[in-house]
């Protein structure tokens, strides 16, 4: 079956989460992604799998690495010398896209800037994914995932009422930048189809995430007021919150956006007298008195599990969603129905379940195409088939340590 | 100027945040985006916050931000005239974006089969909490319930405080961005093959796999840690209160020496409790105590710039004033001044990413129905239908 990115070759120099997650999506939807790792500076995620270093090829078994790097080839190449650099430029001549997320100075030190790549391939699409951007007074500042959300403005608007600004539960800037990468590459490919020209694409992670709180920025610039933290509440709807249900640390969210939904809620929670209670009779009254509503709702939710409560409420037309944990997500009937988790086998890591590509494009679907590459697994494919090197040249590269089949195991301890 | 999406025609029949954010990105990168609004407008017009804190459907910051660069056409999809006009617009669209429950879209007579019958090349992008099929497909949802069902809420906030939503409409923004990326792939495929598709985005399915290493560790090794960790994943990945705000640190193993230099505590480098990453984890509480004490005495901008010089991963929590005053964002052109006839000038976030030095043009949000007549006239809609749609309803 055809895929959207059939025939697109991507050189992936990225590591850890944001970049690899994005290039994995490109691979799932058909691109030939070649992940380049230096034997001396390989992807940190290989070391975060809690696999004892005494195990054979432990560096190929980390689940976090294997999730983020499936549907890619692996090429272990040292870029720090002229030989490695020339090979990369040669590979760029046969590729469509190159993506990097190093610290700001690295590509310059390697003499692999956009202009260098453009000489090798005038149509190349060159994507950088820095934290702050490649220009400006803070361009050399170092930031990781949790810093990105602090810099974007998101943390300042997240938190319990009267509390501290609160971080997200993950390094949120990373996956958001990874998702954005797919669109950025697709846009540049369309532009190239129409103009015959490559592009320099810059995806600064704090800028991507700032676009997720843009209404706050417009509001501030119009009103010069900082808004108070609202927790789970909504500016006008009530109830709009999170309630305890039966079980340990189990919760459900419930929302009413209309009078009809509120009346339905009152019937479900066996408190029909609230429908005509003056404190809750109109949307405005409910918003004003929303704290007084919570005990009535929680008296009912505490009597049942969050899934059960959700089904009862949904059947009556009330928006409700259980607060799901990771084990619950992996067992959830909806995600199972949608085949969101698929069995997967990796030659060094075994068989387990991984997430399917997230987007359904029925005519040109994505797939988990093949497992994440073992370290240097596709060196031969790149050197022989793509770069057309002779056996003697290849043996020489191995002898010089420019390519390798094993990583330097003294780093990322 | 060449835009990546020159020549692409988008019809947005969506509301509130997810579909409008997706449509905003199409518009910013050069597509012609027509937004269909009901007679009383997109519900985000009623949400605010408003300019001057006075409710006005033309000055809701949420609407102003999410609808830059679009044309507004008012059509009542509950009438046969409205529906006929929409299908007429579908005929000349490359992309249609919507975010209704599947049952509601069917009831409007605008399901994919109907659209495909009038335009086989059209790409329909549907954004819902759960997707187009499955046991929850017709469940009612909003940003909060989707955030909970996507697994992000359980891990946000503190154990005592209970699960917490991130600020604003994060589940909806995630839906909109995933939809834009997936929609772009479908557009490339449609332009290559001459055939459209129905892109089905489930917010829950997009959100569930991105819980850091949570899914891989649980699926592969059965490891899962219940509960919420507030502002401290560990002492080294945390937010601490400082004199005039909050500072955030995200120290990976190799950042430890520059971090200690940046905070003026090179003595910690000699401290055997904190020598390796494993030592720092084993003595997490002691390190946290040191860092609480350190942060209490620093000012956010000073320590941020000091850390920048030392190349240590320390940032501070930027509030909206800090963003507006950010020298970095200003130098980047990421604070763009856009005027609006009723709300006046305001600062809008620039492009989420840059394609070449230009490649993005935001424009302003439209007034309600500002483009109904020119768009419908330009589309060659039958004059009698145009007249029926645009005539003032009799009192």
Description:
The complex is a heterodimer of chains A (413) and B (395). Chain A is 38% helix and 12% strand. Chain A has helices at residues 18-28, 63-69, 82-93, 106-109, 114-120, 145-152, 173-195, 205-210, 214-223, 259-268, 283-288, 290-301, 306-315, 326-331, 333-337, 379-386, 391-400, and strands at 9-12, 32-37, 73-76, 97-100, 125-128, 199-202, 240-244, 251-255, 320-322, 341-346, 350-355. In chain A, the strands form three sheets. A six-stranded parallel β-sheet of chain A has the order 3-2-1-4-5-6, with helices on one face. A three-stranded antiparallel β-sheet of chain A has the order 7-8-9, with helices on one face. A two-stranded antiparallel ribbon of chain A has the order 10-11. In chain B, the strands form three sheets. In chain B, strands 3-2-1-4-5-6 form a six-stranded parallel β-sheet, sandwiched between helices. A four-stranded antiparallel β-sheet of chain B has the order 7-8-9-10, covered by helices on one side. In chain B, a hairpin with a 2-residue loop joins strand 7 and strand 8 (237-242). Chain B is elongated, with a radius of gyration of 25 Å. At the A-B interface, helix 2, helix 6, helix 7, strand 6 and helix 8 of A face helix 2, helix 6, helix 7, strand 6 and helix 8 of B.
Averaged pLDDT of chain B, please?
A: 96
**Element string of chain B (H = helix, E = strand):** EHEHEHEHHEHHEHHEEEHHHHEHHEEEHH
Order of helices and strands of chain A: EHEHEHEHHEHHEHHEEHHHHEHHEEHH
Q: Over the alpha carbons, how many angstroms does the gyration radius of chain A reach?
A: 26 Å
The major β-sheet of chain B equals: 6 strands, parallel
Give the N-to-C terminal Cα separation of chain A. 43 Å
Number of helices of chain B: 17
The largest interface is: A-B, 147 and 155 residues
Number of strands of chain A: 11
- The residue ranges of chain B in which pLDDT falls below 50 over 5 or more consecutive positions are none
How are the strands ordered across the major sheet of chain B? 3-2-1-4-5-6
**Fraction of residues in helix of chain A:** 25-40%
Oligomer: heterodimer
């Amino acid at each position: 079956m055809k895929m959207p990115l059939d025939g697109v070759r991507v050189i992936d120099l990225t590591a850890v989460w944001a970049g690899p997650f994005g290039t994995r999506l490109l691979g799932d939807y058909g691109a030939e992604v070649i992940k380049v790792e230096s034997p001396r500076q390989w992807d940190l995620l290989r070391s975060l799998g809690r696999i004892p270093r005494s195990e054979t090829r432990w560096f190929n078994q980390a689940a976090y690495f294997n999730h983020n790097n499936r549907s890619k080839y692996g090429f272990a190449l040292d870029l720090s010398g002229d030989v490695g650099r020339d090979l990369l430029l040669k590979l760029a001549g046969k590729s469509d896209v190159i993506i990097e997320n190093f610290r700001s100075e690295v590509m310059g030190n390697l003499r692999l800037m956009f202009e260098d790549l453009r000489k090798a391939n005038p149509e190349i699409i060159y994507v950088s994914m820095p934290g702050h951007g490649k220009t400006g007074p803070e361009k050399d500042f170092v930031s990781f995932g949790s810093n990105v959300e602090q810099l974007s403005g998101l943390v300042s608007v997240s938190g319990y009422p009267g509390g501290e600004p609160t971080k997200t539960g993950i390094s949120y800037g990373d996956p958001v930048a990874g998702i954005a990468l797919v669109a950025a590459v697709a846009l540049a490919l369309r532009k190239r189809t129409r103009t015959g020209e490559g592009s320099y694409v810059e995806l600064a992670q704090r800028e991507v995430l700032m676009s997720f709180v843009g209404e706050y920025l417009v509001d501030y610039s119009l009103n010069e007021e900082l808004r108070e933290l609202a927790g789970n509440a909504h500016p006008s709807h009530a109830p709009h919150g999170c309630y305890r249900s039966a079980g340990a640390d189990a919760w459900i969210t419930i929302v009413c956006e209309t009078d009809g939904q509120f009346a339905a809620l009152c019937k479900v929670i066996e408190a029909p007298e609230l429908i005509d209670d003056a404190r809750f009779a109109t949307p405005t009254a409910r918003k004003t008195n929303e704290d007084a509503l919570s005990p009535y709702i929680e008296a009912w939710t505490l009597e049942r599990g969050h899934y059960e409560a959700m089904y009862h409420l949904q059947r009556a037309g009330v928006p409700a969603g259980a607060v799901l944990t990771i084990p619950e997500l992996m067992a959830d009937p909806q995600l199972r129905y949608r085949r969101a988790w698929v069995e997967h086998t990796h030659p060094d890591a075994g068989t387990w379940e991984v997430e399917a590509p997230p987007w359904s494009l029925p005519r040109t679907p994505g797939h988990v195409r093949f497992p994440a590459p073992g370290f240097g697994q596709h060196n031969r494919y790149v050197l022989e088939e793509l770069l057309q090197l002779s056996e003697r040249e290849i043996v020489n590269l191995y002898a010089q340590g420019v390519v390798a089949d094993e990583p330097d195991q003294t780093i990322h301890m | 100027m060449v835009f990546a999406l020159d020549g692409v025609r988008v019809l947005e029949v969506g509301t509130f945040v997810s579909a409008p954010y997706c449509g905003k990105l199409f518009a910013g990168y050069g597509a012609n985006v027509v937004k269909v609004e009901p007679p009383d407008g997109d519900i985000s017009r009623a949400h605010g916050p408003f300019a001057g804190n006075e409710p006005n459907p033309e000055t809701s910051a949420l609407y102003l931000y999410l609808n830059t660069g679009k044309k507004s056409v008012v059509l009542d999809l509950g009438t046969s005239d409205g529906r006929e006009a929409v299908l007429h617009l579908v005929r000349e669209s490359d992309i249609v974006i919507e975010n209704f429950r599947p049952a509601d879209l069917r009831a409007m007579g605008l399901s994919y089969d109907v659209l495909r019958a009038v335009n086989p090349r059209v790409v329909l992008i549907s954004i819902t909490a759960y997707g187009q099929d499955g046991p929850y497909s017709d469940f009612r949802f909003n940003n909060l319930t989707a955030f909970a069902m996507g697994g992000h809420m359980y891990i946000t906030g503190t154990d005592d405080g209970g699960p917490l939503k991130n600020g604003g409409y994060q589940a909806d923004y995630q839906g909109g961005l995933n939809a834009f990326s997936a929609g772009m792939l479908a557009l490339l495929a449609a332009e290559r093959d001459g055939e459209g598709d129905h892109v089905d985005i489930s917010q829950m399915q997009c959100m569930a796999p991105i819980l850091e290493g949570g899914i891989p560790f649980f699926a592969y090794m059965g490891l899962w840690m219940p509960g919420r960790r507030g502002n401290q994943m560990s002492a080294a990945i945390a937010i601490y209160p400082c004199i005039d705000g909050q500072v955030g640190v995200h120290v990976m193993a190799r950042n430890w020496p520059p971090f200690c230099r940046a905070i003026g505590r090179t003595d910690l480098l000699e401290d055997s409790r904190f020598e390796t990453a494993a030592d720092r984890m084993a003595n997490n509480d002691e390190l946290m105590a040191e860092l609480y004490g350190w942060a209490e005495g620093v000012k956010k901008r000073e320590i941020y710039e000091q850390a920048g010089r030392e190349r240590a991963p320390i940032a501070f929590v930027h509030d909206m004033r800090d963003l507006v005053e950010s020298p970095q964002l200003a130098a980047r052109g990421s604070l763009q001044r856009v005027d609006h006839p009723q709300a006046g000038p305001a600062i809008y976030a620039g492009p989420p990413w840059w394609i070449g030095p230009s490649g993005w043009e935001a424009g302003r949000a439209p007034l309600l129905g500002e483009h109904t007549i020119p768009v419908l006239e330009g589309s060659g809609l039958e004059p009698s239908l145009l007249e029926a749609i645009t005539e003032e309803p009799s009192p």
